[in-house]
Specification:
By secondary structure, the protein is α+β, with helices and mostly antiparallel strands. The protein starts with 16 loop residues before the first strand and ends in a 5-residue tail after the last helix. It has 2 helices and 5 strands; from the N terminus they run βββαββα.
């Protein structure tokens, strides 16, 4: 028979700092966390493997709730990171480097519609840009 011995774990939480860099929030989680610096996009997803579940995302939410400066909005149709969900059907998207470009930003494909939803969205963006340009609005 095994005897369980209660153990105590002490966790020291140090305050994080949030700063804005372009289209991202950079969160310093402290020197005892690896990776120390996390990049959270305006879509509310961290670039680390934890994605939406990263503690840095909550730090950014709190930073904004406390009146912190907002990250810059990218130009219409430019994606610095994949969207949080597919603009065509609302399903999850996955990063696809083969669709990335410096003019369009991060490439992605929909788990339901694949690359075709990416290209349908690009066509919608182009049509909207043309319509706005005809109306004399800056795109």
């Amino acid at each position: 028979m095994k005897t369980l011995i209660p153990t105590q774990v002490n966790v020291q939480v140090s305050p994080s700092s949030v700063m804005v860099n372009g289209y991202f929030y950079i969160v310093d989680l402290g020197e005892h966390v690896r990776p120390r610096y996390h990049h959270v996009g305006i879509n509310g997803v961290c670039t680390c493997v934890l994605g939406r579940n990263c503690p840095a995302v909550n730090d950014v939410r709190q930073y904004l709730a406390d009146g912190g400066k907002r990250a810059n909005r990218p130009p219409y149709g430019y994606y610095p990171v994949p969207p949080a969900k597919c603009p065509v059907c609302g399903q999850e998207v996955q990063y696809d480097a083969s669709l990335s470009s410096r003019h369009r930003g991060a490439g992605w494909q929909c788990v339901a519609g694949g690359k075709s939803h990416y290209w349908q969205n690009r066509a919608r963006i182009s049509a909207t840009r043309q319509r706005l340009a005809q109306q004399g609005k800056v795109v």
